[in-house]
TrEMBL record:
Organism: mine drainage metagenome
Protein name: Helix-turn-helix domain protein
GO molecular function: DNA binding
Domain Helix-turn-helix positions: 18-65
Length: 69
């Protein structure tokens, strides 16, 4: 379900947020973000050897953009 990043991909970890960081930024709960992930609306990643789920900052910011009517 969650792609595992290689060591080379871990160089861009700075743009990856924990669910707590993302929830604080966007003003939602971690549970809400987990629902977005489960529904496929928010891509999520696991760093190799870690259990914690991470999300890209740009993907979190994309959730804030209005959907065109």
């Amino acid at each position: 379900m969650y792609p595992i990043q290689s060591r080379a991909e871990q160089n861009s970890v700075a743009e990856l947020w924990t669910l707590g960081q993302a929830a604080d930024y966007i003003g939602l709960t971690e549970r809400s973000l987990r629902r977005y992930i489960a529904d496929g609306d928010l891509p999520a990643y696991r760093l190799a050897g870690k259990k914690q789920i991470r999300v890209r900052r740009s993907d979190v910011e994309a959730l804030l953009k209005p959907i065109p009517a």
